[in-house]
């Protein structure tokens, strides 16, 4: 049983890593759609979201099968449950990329972002994609040090998010209320995406170290 | 084993129902803190959030113990996993109430909401608390019809959320960008809270009917 368990757990890890890659691509394309006012890319992200949802269902079904057939206990049990939680976070990251793509589509052919704000989203997009790609590596390599580096990238995201808010709140904001509302929600989507990526990495750290991650709330704006 | 399993599952359901009650109270008090600019109530919600986090940990530990000791399969297994997911959603509802309370504290002694906007939040608060209380009843009574009525209340929340956005986006919005940003985020907190309450109810429907709920994305604003 132990051997079968480890083979199946390895497959589950590969499925999760693949979900990281899919959510990273979704956020990469959604950010380009946002920055370049590219309707085709936005549509692609919107169309592809169902694939991430399917990958999560498949991951969850495999985890269920593993629980039912192998009845793991102790750390093995927690490992499979961590995988179920990670799949949920990754599906949510896909949804957040989808929201970005829908914002780009909703305002098309107009850009969503005022010119002044574009650099923040260019950076937030870069950090978000980096986080998802790092989480993929953490899953594949079970590299705890890399998991810790995700927290640094998440701090970078939080900094960008705070800077973004101070720009919106400045007295000389000249882009109107509608743009401020769009930028507020988009900023939150990127920040939540980063939180979920960190949560995925923490679950993997737990799988490797056996230490249960805390339930940190997301950062307040 | 079957008898022990059902006793433990009953205890797990009671813990989840108790978490519903705690998140309902948190949102009720947070909404009053927001509407009445009441710092004491805001502090109470902020201080009590750790209890909801603890309740989730406890719920999860009991579910893990149930899995490890009883090794349930088929529907029994899915039931326990549904409980783990429901506990996660309920903890998140507590976090969202916490965000509302923190917004009230951040702007104190000033009100967060322009007078014109207060009725929307009064209604959104009422619907949010109703949803959490209904989810509690669904868990305790396994009443599928009541679970479906949650979807109607969620539609009501989505309508309120849409109306709120049209008010913010109107040309005669006179409360400035900072208030628009606060209202945008607060509106999203209530809408997400409602989505999570519906998700809890759907999990319970699944436990009763054996039909797997879909993974609906949250509504776009």
Automatic annotation (TrEMBL), chains A, B:
Q: State if Transport is listed as a keyword.
A: yes
Location(s), subcellular: Cytoplasm
Gene Ontology BP annotations? intracellular phosphate ion homeostasis; negative regulation of phosphate metabolic process; phosphate ion transport
Q: Which keywords has UniProt assigned to this entry?
A: Cytoplasm, Phosphate transport, Transport
* Native source organism of the sequence: Actinophytocola algeriensis
Keyword Cytoplasm assigned: yes
Where it mainly occurs, coarsely classed, is: cytoplasm
Q: What does this protein do?
A: Plays a role in the regulation of phosphate uptake.
Q: Gene3D superfamilies attached here?
A: Phosphate transport system protein phou homolog 2, domain 2
- What's an example GO cellular component term for this entry? cytoplasm
Task: Name the InterPro entries for this protein.
Answer: PhoU (IPR028366), PhoU-like_sf (IPR038078), PhoU_dom (IPR026022)
Subunit info? Homodimer.
The family line of this record is: Belongs to the PhoU family.
Residue intervals of the PhoU domain: 17-103, 122-204
- For this entry, the protein name equals Phosphate-specific transport system accessory protein PhoU
């Amino acid at each position: 049983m132990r051997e079968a368990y480890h083979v199946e757990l390895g497959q589950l890890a590969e499925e999760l890593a693949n979900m990281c890659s899919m959510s990273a691509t979704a956020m990469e394309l959604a950010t380009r759609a946002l920055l370049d006012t590219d309707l085709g890319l936005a549509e692609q992200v919107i169309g592809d979201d169902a694939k991430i949802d399917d990958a999560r269902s498949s991951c969850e079904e495999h985890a269920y099968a593993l629980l039912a057939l192998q009845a793991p206990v102790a750390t093995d049990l927690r490992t499979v449950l961590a995988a179920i939680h990670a799949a949920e976070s990754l599906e949510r990251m896909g949804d957040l990329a989808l929201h970005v793509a829908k914002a780009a589509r909703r305002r098309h052919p107009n850009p969503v972002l005022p010119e002044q704000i574009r650099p923040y989203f260019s950076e937030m997009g870069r950090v978000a994609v980096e986080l998802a790609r790092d989480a993929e590596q953490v899953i594949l390599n079970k590299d705890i040090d890399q998991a810790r580096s995700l927290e640094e990238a998440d701090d970078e995201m939080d900094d960008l998010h705070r800077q973004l808010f101070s720009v919106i709140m400045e007295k000389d904001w000249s882009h109107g209320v509608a743009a401020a509302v769009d930028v507020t929600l988009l900023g939150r989507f990127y920040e939540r995406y980063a939180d979920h990526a960190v949560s995925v990495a923490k679950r993997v750290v737990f799988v490797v170290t056996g230490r249960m991650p805390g339930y940190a709330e997301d950062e307040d704006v």
